[in-house]
Specification:
It is a single chain. This protein is of the alpha+beta class. It has 2 domains: 133 residues, Jelly Rolls (Sandwich), CATH 2.60.120.10; 81 residues, Arc Repressor Mutant, subunit A. The chain contains 9 helices and 10 strands. Strands 2-6-4-5 form a 4-stranded antiparallel β-sheet. Strands 1-7-3 form a 3-stranded antiparallel β-sheet. The two termini are 27 Å apart. The C terminus is likely disordered.
């Protein structure tokens, strides 16, 4: 197993499968709000974050963007392209800056065709993302902005491994599908309660347990699906700021 690799998908692989991928990996910088691919485009690269996070978002006709799922060091983006889903169903946008490895889709497909274990792992990661997207859809229509923002911050913390997140109110509003004024009011409420510290473009989680209590059940539901399908990796370790 490639246990020392910062990306948990790669760290979980059998050494034989990992050895096939490592020579083909290229370093890639994740720049905040960069568009990695658009819906309907052919997917040519797979992204494996070491740090930072990528949002998979759905665009509406009025220009509104709503996040369906988030991927950080715990998984990969574009894996379905190796399972013949070569056309993107949504947009991939860098949510939190960081670094990643990228891999040509054809290489990933070749390894998936050669190794049943690798293909099974890939399918489990895709299932975890699908479960996250389903839960997000239910959450967006059922829960308060306060609970949704708390859930989103907790998920971002898990994905990035950091208590300090570089996020603007405009971007938060886009991802949650609400007005910026709503995000501002809720962020102020969470800060007044001592759960977060908010400065321009940066949020620090200061009370993890309190934020978990403020969140809806969707955070724990998504986490349970992820743990069951792909394991929790090093999730028990305290993220660093």
């Amino acid at each position: 197993m490639g246990a020392s690799h910062p990306n948990r998908f790669l760290a979980s692989l059998d050494s034989n499968d990992l050895d096939l991928l490592l020579p083909q990996l290229k370093p890639f910088e994740l720049v905040h709000e960069d568009l990695l691919f658009a819906a309907g485009e052919r997917v040519n690269w797979v992204y494996l974050p070491h740090s930072g996070a990528i949002s998979l978002v759905v665009g509406l006709a009025d220009g509104q963007l709503i996040e369906a799922a988030m991927v950080g060091r715990d998984s990969l983006v574009g894996g379905s392209a190796a399972l013949d889903g070569r056309v993107a169903l949504n947009r991939g946008i860098v949510q939190v800056e960081g670094v990643a490895s990228i891999l040509d889709v054809d290489t990933l497909r070749t390894v998936a065709e050669q190794s049943v274990a690798f293909r099974t792992t890939l399918i489990r990661h895709e299932q975890a993302q699908f479960a996250q997207a389903q839960q997000s859809a239910a959450c967006n229509v059922s829960h308060s902005v306060e609970a949704r923002l708390s859930r989103w911050l907790l998920r971002t913390r898990d994905a990035t491994g950091s208590d300090t997140l570089g996020l603007t109110q405009e971007f938060l509003a886009q991802m949650l599908g609400v007005r910026r004024t709503s995000v501002s009011l809720v962020a102020n409420t969470l800060q007044a309660a001592g759960l977060i510290r908010y400065r321009r473009g940066r949020i620090e989680i200061t009370n993890l347990e309190g934020l978990q209590e403020m969140s809806c059940e969707c955070y724990e539901t998504v986490k349970a699906h992820s743990n069951r399908l792909i394991g929790n990796g090093t999730a028990q370790a305290k993220p660093t700021s």
